[in-house]
Design a protein that fits this description.
Oligomer: single chain
Order of helices and strands: EEEHEHHHEEEHHHEHEEHE
Shape: globular
Distance between the termini: 21 Å
Structural class: alpha+beta
Radius of gyration: 19 Å
Helix content: 25-40%
Number of helices: 9
Number of strands: 11
Largest sheet: 7 strands, mixed
């Protein structure tokens, strides 16, 4: 491989997220509609003399443990049955971390696509997604992109038709919600927010954007503390007042997205939110990546 190769790493939003219960293996059974969006990190790959090095631009890497990127590279070369060469990986971060937008999973997915392109172009897509699933539950979807119904831990994917033309405004408030702590807080008995994921999937199969938006929701919103809920609701209020068809927290949060039909005031919503929040993004759906 000559020089450095780059891949975009699109973030994801959960248009609908339901959790059916805890599994015997300790994971939770998920039921979701996932959508790739144009908010992207960039991942670069180059060969090095030896070892694995990771450089992050715009993000402080966690110290003292093997990165997800290194684990993914090791899993990839183990799966294709060849020794791992020296690798240098560069991350250019734009997607907020710890936000429910799958930024870390998207970076791993982009690296796996790069590794396949450079070292095993014959590797089937399903095999690459299987490697990704061993690193993180969202990685298979982030490898694939587009619009998909997700089950299991999130790794069992069924493609859905692309979203009709629309825009997203994404806003992350100034606090983090680590995924593990949100799962620990979650109480599923009597959860008030239970989106009808299959109804959303059916609406998308019909090309019915308003019908899909009517089913948007996220069961994790039931696990928010009072102060967190107040902040999330304030962001939603701006998005809905500005004409969003739906406003929902993504993943385990705290980022919130608004879904806007063509011609609605997405730009005005983003401008208003920027008066209070540093991380506000206007973007659009992204189709299949792989």
């Amino acid at each position: 491989m000559n020089g450095i190769r780059w891949q975009d790493a699109p973030a994801k939003v959960n248009l609908a997220l339901n959790i059916l219960g805890r599994r015997s293996d300790g994971y939770h059974e998920m039921h979701m509609v996932m959508q790739a969006v144009g908010l992207c990190d960039r991942v670069g790959l180059a060969e090095a003399e030896a070892g694995f090095t990771l450089e992050a631009r715009g993000f402080a890497l966690p110290a003292g443990k093997k990165s997800l990127e290194q684990r993914a590279a090791e899993a990839f070369f183990a799966a294709v049955g060849r020794p791992m060469p020296g690798l240098r990986v560069t991350l250019e971060k734009r997607t907020p971390a710890y936000a429910g937008l799958g930024g870390g999973s998207a970076d791993v997915a982009a690296l796996l696509r790069l590794l396949r392109e450079a070292y095993a172009p014959e590797l089937p897509a399903a095999a690459l997604e299987e490697i990704g699933a061993a690193v993180g539950s969202d990685v298979p979807f982030c490898i694939r992109g587009g619009t998909a119904l997700a089950r299991g831990r999130g790794e069992i994917l069924t493609d859905l038709p692309p979203l009709p033309p629309c825009r997203f405004v994404i806003c992350k408030p100034g606090f983090d919600l680590p995924t593990a702590s949100m799962f620990a807080r979650l109480r599923l008995d009597g959860a008030a927010v239970r989106p009808d994921v299959e109804a959303m999937a059916d609406a998308l199969r019909r090309g019915d954007l308003p019908g899909a938006a009517a089913q948007a929701g996220n069961v994790f919103e039931t696990a928010l503390a009072a102060g967190e809920r107040q902040e999330i609701d304030a962001i939603k209020e701006v998005l809905l007042r500005r004409g969003a068809m739906a406003a929902v927290m993504s993943g385990s949060g705290p980022a919130v997205f608004g879904l806007f039909a063509p011609g609605a005031d997405a730009a005005g919503a983003a401008e208003e939110l920027r008066f209070c929040y540093a991380q506000v993004f206007e973007t659009e759906p992204v189709g299949r990546l792989f």
